[in-house]
Write a sequence for this structure.
């Protein structure tokens, strides 16, 4: 079982650092799945039985890495699954975000000293035009083959409505305030392109309305608007995806059941699944 990769494009280093930072805001543990053509960050909802995916982030390795060598176990499937702390990985990549204009290359490899770990080597220049090497090691746990099925790609999501989200920076400011009022948030979407965020307590009801949003799909057999109530903090955490500068963010909703938030950016997609909660 071997893995080694090299990255030298400034934009790709910045994007990877932002993606990992975003994932670290959504979970304390995730699984890095390495395959021939893609690499993934996967998070399971441990509170659900059976287990289900809460985060699925897929990236084309050829877009990010100049070199990419993988020997999986078993070799005929050629994949590796590693459980790790995204916060530790984000901290290791933070120098790319601070000195990204100066970073020359970054190498990642799977090593095994006393325990398995991802070793990162980031080459940075100095004022004397000589390179210096910044090294980090992130402990990982190798997921055995018998558990790979737990991290399979989520089944297709069949929503009642799909609506494009407003600017995430604006949404983040709104949800940061709403979560101080109530623990739960009602998300309403209509076929007219309206999105409403509402929180209610015994003392007050607060709503924010967005209009003229693009509706990509709607179930004409059901009367709208469609509404799902979710954990406001989980919904708010998703807004950190703003830092990856997505080209599009879409909210797919099953009325009263669940929400699938999908981020699209170049050769990367990130899906965040929220289960509805009862009043």
């Amino acid at each position: 079982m071997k893995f080694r990769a090299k990255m030298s494009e400034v934009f790709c280093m910045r994007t990877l650092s932002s993606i990992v930072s975003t994932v670290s805001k959504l979970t304390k543990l995730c699984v890095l799945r390495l395959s021939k053509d893609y690499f993934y960050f996967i998070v399971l909802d441990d509170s659900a039985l059976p287990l289900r995916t809460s985060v699925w982030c897929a990236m084309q390795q050829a877009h990010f890495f100049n070199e990419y060598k993988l020997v999986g176990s078993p070799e005929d499937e050629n994949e590796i699954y590693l459980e790790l702390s995204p916060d530790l990985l984000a901290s290791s990549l933070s120098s790319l975000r601070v000195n990204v204009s100066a970073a020359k290359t970054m190498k990642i490899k799977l090593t095994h000293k006393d325990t398995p770990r991802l070793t990162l080597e980031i080459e940075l220049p100095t004022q004397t035009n000589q390179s210096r090497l910044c090294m980090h090691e992130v402990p990982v746990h190798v997921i055995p083959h018998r558990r790979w099925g737990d991290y399979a790609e989520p089944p297709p999501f069949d929503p009642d409505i799909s609506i494009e989200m407003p600017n995430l920076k604006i949404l983040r400011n709104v949800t940061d305030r709403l979560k101080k009022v109530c623990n739960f948030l009602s998300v309403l979407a209509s076929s007219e392109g309206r999105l409403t965020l509402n929180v209610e307590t015994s003392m007050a009801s607060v709503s924010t309305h967005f209009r003229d949003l693009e509706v990509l799909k709607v179930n004409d057999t059901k009367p709208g608007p469609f509404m799902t109530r979710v954990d406001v903090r989980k919904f708010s955490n998703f807004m950190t995806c703003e830092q990856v500068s997505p080209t599009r963010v879409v909210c797919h909703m099953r009325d009263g059941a669940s929400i699938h938030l999908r981020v699209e950016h170049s050769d990367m997609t990130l899906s965040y699944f929220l289960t509805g909660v009862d009043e």
